[in-house]
Amino acid sequence: MTDEASDVQLQAWAQALVAYARDWDETFEGRPGYFTQEFWYLLVGCMIANDNGRPMTVSAACQIMKSGSNRTREERIKRAVDDGYLLKTRAGDDGRAAIVRPTPKLEAMIRAHLQRTLRIAQAAIAPERH
After folding, report:
1. 3-state secondary structure 86-98
2. What topology does CATH give the domain 7-125?
3. Hey, where are the domains in the chain?
4. Global pTM?
5. CA-to-CA distance for 90 and 73, rounded, in angstroms?
6. Distance between CA atoms of 97 and 123, rounded to whole angstroms?
7. Where are the alpha helices (DSSP H) in the chain?
8. Angle of helix 7-27 relative to helix 104-125, nearest 10 degrees?
9. What are the tens digits of pLDDT across the range 83-124?
């Protein structure tokens, strides 16, 4: 038995990944400012950190993004705050640390996106079960 996937399995997986990216774009109403790579790490990372009880600092949110200058990364955070996807608040004993948390709107959007795309991925990996 080989660990390599068949061409049919690879094609099904590729189609699932394309469906994932399209679903992300549809989740954000096709707004080009929220292309997958630009915001995925930021928005999903903030949600995971918040779910784990450790909301991200602005600095950590900037570091989790994979591209762009610091200014560009901070502008992405500002755009997400302005559009109602993230909340930026002060924290810490002295109130100097700024943290970002997902809004209930973003949490609902991403959870729905992940549920839809999980079903797509499961069907691609094990189509006989779905």
Report:
1. EEEEEECCCCCEE
2. Arc Repressor Mutant, subunit A (1.10.10)
3. 7-125
4. 0.83
5. 19
6. 43
7. 7-27, 36-51, 58-64, 70-82, 104-125
8. 170
9. 999 999 998 777 788 999 999 999 999 999 999 999 999 988
